[in-house]
Write a structure and sequence with these properties.
Blueprint: H1 2-27, H2 30-34, H3 39-49, H4 62-77, E1 81-82, E2 89-106, E3 109-111, E4 117-119, E5 127-136, E6 142-143, E7 146-147, E8 158-161, H5 182-192, E9 196-200, E10 227-231, H6 233-239, H7 243-249, E11 258-284, E12 289-299, E13 304-306, E14 309-311, H8 314-336, E15 343-350, H9 353-356, H10 358-365, E16 374-380, E17 398-402, H11 411-423, E18 426-428, H12 446-450, E19 456-460, H13 480-499
Length: 515
């Protein structure tokens, strides 16, 4: 009882002390901390991350593993805690196919690989398929007001698809998922239940395709997708004797679906390679709100090498990666000075973004923190250059901001308030428009947090037409003064989010991708 009485006497003092501690954390001046994010440090990191030794950092390659080790060492040097149950890296499986042999035969006539056809390895299973008929489904386009399949059921059947689209077809949708794109047509066939897809392609005879197919994640699937081959006009004629007439008619109008009798044999023999990649994650522990989290992300992978040519990826996304490294160091220095954040801050660089947001998707499905306790994700993908399409006088004092009007009504006021107080950049909302054809909101790693209900802000420098996904995206073209300023903006925003009293509200619906 005596001990209890002492505890009760001390409790008000402890509460006051805790309140003062929290107040001191909020009042800590972040400007001196932000000043530790320097052009010199950003350049030093970037010359390594986007240097030749990293070989373009392609997912599941030695270059990516070297970059991951560098980032892990940096987090360790800051005294961070490992973010994946005792490990700084979160590995996930990646698969790749190596073609050994392939066959395509129509009515006992065999066609030569590469000269007349090519299998799309990722969408072809090992083994043989034999069909006695095929369904020609025009251009294979399906959208809300257009369906080349008509009333024909193609479940379990082989379909023949014409190249391109008729001049009478129009769509506001763009990109590789558009209904008239290569991928869009294939996915329409998948949804229709086709067992094999033969799509007429250009450029035959072709050079031999790379012996290795594209990397992929979905080795196991509840439903097997159709095998996918591109074929020459000669193969199409062997299946459909009236192919030339169909081709001419299809230039301007839809071509009705039609069934052709033909004995078709398809065979693929490939070896499966088991690879792996990883995200790198470390965190700084909070004080009085250590059951809550702020996440800061960037993708550190790029396109790797094509022969001896390195795709350096200095801006995409070397700039975001080194921004994360410097922001992390600023938080570590603040904590060393007794001014650490109230919430835990998880710093994560992910791989596989260029392949399809793989690393962030894997984390979102296997989170190491409770996602409902994540106040926000601040994602950085390309912040070191100037948009070549931007023709405004403040070209050197802007950043595109995406997502701050979604999920939480508190994001935009906080973001704009921090910017007005500390940085005074132009926050451009061009890519925040739901009707923007680029659909940027759905194309970087923040989306895998947003779809789980986490409020997100995405920082981006725009369309670099001359160097985007080219070997010329190099360190010498980075504007380090602008990179520093943008990284400091993210730091100030992170600082406010990590130290405010309440988590960001989740009071708006989660947007969903429409294509």
């Amino acid at each position: 009882m005596k001990q209890l009485a002492i505890a009760l006497v001390m409790l008000p003092g402890l509460l006051v002390l805790g309140a003062r501690h929290a107040q001191a954390q909020k009042k800590a001046n972040p400007q001196k901390i932000a000043a530790t994010i320097t052009e010199e440090d950003l350049r030093r990191h970037l010359e390594i991350i986007a240097g030749p030794a990293m070989e373009g950092r392609e997912t599941a390659t030695e270059g990516q593993r070297k970059a991951a080790a560098y980032i892990e060492d940096h987090f360790k040097s800051l005294g961070f805690m490992p973010g994946n149950h005792g490990s700084f890296q979160m590995e996930y499986p990646v698969y790749r196919d190596s073609l050994k042999a392939a066959l395509l035969r129509v009515n006992e006539k065999s066609f030569a690989l590469n000269t007349e056809f090519q299998p799309f390895l990722q969408f072809c299973r090992n083994g043989s398929q034999y069909f006695s008929e095929l369904v020609m489904v025009g251009h294979g386009i399906v959208d809300s007001a257009y369906d080349d399949y008509g009333d024909i059921d193609v479940k379990g059947k082989a379909v023949l698809i014409l190249d391109g689209s008729p001049s009478s077809y129009s769509s506001t949708k763009r990109g590789f998922r558009a209904p008239n794109s290569f991928y869009g047509k294939y996915m329409a066939a998948v949804k229709k239940g086709a067992a094999a897809v033969l799509m007429v392609g250009q450029g035959f005879p072709r050079q031999a395709a790379a012996s290795l197919g594209n990397m992929y994640l979905n080795l196991y699937s509840a439903v097997q997708q159709p095998s996918f081959f591109t074929i020459s006009a000669n193969v199409a004629k062997a299946i459909a004797p009236d192919y030339e007439q169909l081709l001419q008619a299809g230039k301007t109008a839809a071509v009705p679906a039609k069934v052709y009798e033909a004995d078709l044999a398809l065979e693929v023999d490939k070896a499966l390679l088991h690879l792996k990649s990883s995200n790198v994650l470390g965190y700084i522990e909070g004080t009085d709100k250590k059951d809550e989290w702020l996440i800061v992300t960037a993708h550190y992978d790029h396109l790797g090498k094509r022969g001896d040519v390195i795709y350096y990826g200095a801006d995409d996304d070397g700039s975001g990666t080194v921004g994360v490294l410097e922001i992390a160091e600023a938080f570590a220095k603040a904590k060393a000075a007794g001014k650490g954040p109230r919430r835990n801050v998880l710093f994560m660089t992910v791989s596989g973004e260029e392949k399809g947001l793989w690393g962030s998707e894997y984390f979102s499905e296997h989170p190491t923190i409770p996602m409902e306790k994540a106040t926000a994700d601040l994602n950085i993908d390309m912040i070191g250059r100037v948009d070549t399409e931007r023709k405004l006088p403040d070209t050197l004092n802007y950043v595109y901001v995406v997502g701050d009007d979604k999920i939480s009504t508190e994001l935009k006021p906080l973001s704009e308030g921090v910017n007005k107080k500390y940085i005074k950049m132009t926050l451009d909302y061009k890519f925040n428009d739901p009707n923007d054809q680029n659909q940027i909101y759905f194309r970087s790693d923040h989306y895998n947090f947003a779809r789980k209900g986490v409020p997100v802000i995405f920082y981006y420098d725009g369309m670099l037409q001359a160097d985007y996904h080219k070997p010329t995206d190099t360190v010498d073209k980075i504007n380090f003064a602008l990179l520093r300023k943008r990284a400091q903006l993210v730091f100030y925003t992170a600082w406010e989010m990590a130290n405010r009293d309440a988590m960001m509200k989740r009071d708006l619906p989660v947007p969903t991708a429409t294509r």
